[in-house]
Design a protein that fits this description.
By secondary structure, the protein is mainly α.
């Protein structure tokens, strides 16, 4: 009963409001930094002027046609990966779970590379990545569900095997691909927002998934304490697992379609949010979306200026930032657990 009262307690308080305001403000600063940063120096005044009124100058064109769409895409992709990571860690009951662990990224990579080898680009690469991710999702779900039941460990092992198989196919495609197309293919595999498009679809997916996850936030709070305890308190465990798996896979598929393989966002952000704000999913879900979006926008901005005028794939920067940050979070969390 104490657990039920805890998960049903009022969420909205001065602390929650303050967290929301601070995270929203940091996201706005990150987006402003992303729009103002690049190989061409543009002041914040010019940024605001271009957004309010497009005067046709070079600065306005750079902002409205290149940087702003990229910042929006980065925020959406980061938010989707962070939310998918939070859901995956609940589904698999593994704090090291992240969006790509079930092979969704591998399926997307194979079909995107096939489109590139065929000489296609833009919409067709994105469509191929999305279809490949969905196919991988169905494969993992179908194989793990053989026999009529499934467990987190069975899903995890199935996903790891499927991911290894997709990885072998990716290596084969890279080995037989024309040399002229390898650069673009490698950039996509490492994660690059230069391929991003269809922000409207991604925004709808992220908003719908966030709202649906929030609607089941109380059940998620109960599920982390175990299936039996959650079921005894009225949670339909199997239905909730299906929902988590579907939402996490759809978010990952859409993120991979937008930007290729970007790692560590889905692993680090949920950990960071739990350490700072606790494990209540009514707060963790929106906080993860905001933090993941802002973090990826900053990483992409840095990827564009570190070796300007050349650009690094943002997946490299997210990994370079993610490894030391994760080690710090691991050390900090272990230190808190010591008596």
């Amino acid at each position: 009963m104490a657990l039920l009262r805890e998960t049903s307690s009022p969420l909205w308080s001065g602390r929650t409001l303050l967290i929301g305001i601070v995270l929203s403000g940091l996201c706005l600063l990150a987006c402003a930094f992303g729009v103002a940063t690049g190989s061409v120096d543009i002041s914040l005044r010019e940024v605001f002027a271009a957004i309010v009124n497009d005067d046709g100058t070079v600065a306005s064109s750079v902002i409205l046609e290149l940087r702003l769409p990229r910042v929006i895409a980065g925020f959406l992709v980061g938010g989707m990966l962070a939310l998918a990571g939070a859901l995956m860690q609940i589904l698999l009951r593994n704090p090291l779970a992240e969006p790509y662990v079930l092979g969704v990224s591998g399926g997307a990579s194979v079909f995107a590379l096939l489109a590139m080898i065929a000489g296609l680009s833009g919409y067709w690469v994105n469509l191929g990545a999305f279809l490949g991710a969905l196919l991988s999702m169905l494969l993992v779900f179908g194989i793990a569900h053989l026999g009529g039941s499934w467990s987190p460990m069975r899903v995890l092992l199935t996903g790891v095997v499927i991911a290894a198989g997709w990885g072998a196919v990716v290596n084969f495609l890279l080995a037989v691909s024309p040399a002229g197309r390898l650069h673009g293919m490698l950039f996509w595999l490492m994660g690059d927002l230069g391929f991003a498009g269809h922000a409207g679809f991604s925004a709808v997916v992220l908003a719908a998934a966030t709202c649906l996850a929030l609607a089941f936030a109380r059940d998620l709070n109960l599920l982390i304490h175990g299936d039996l305890q959650a079921a005894s308190l009225g949670v339909t465990v199997d239905r909730l697992r299906y929902l988590i798996y579907f939402l996490a896979s759809l978010l990952t598929a859409t993120a991979v379609m937008q930007a290729g393989g970007i790692g560590f966002i889905g692993l680090i952000v949920p950990h960071l949010v739990r350490l700072l704000f606790g494990s209540d999913h009514r707060l963790l879900i929106p906080a993860s979306v905001l933090t993941g979006g802002g973090l990826l926008v900053v990483a992409d901005a840095l990827a564009r200026i570190l070796i300007a005028p050349q650009q690094l794939p943002v997946g490299i920067l997210s990994a370079m930032l993610g490894v030391p940050l994760f080690l710090f979070l691991l050390h900090f969390s272990m230190a808190r657990q010591r008596p």
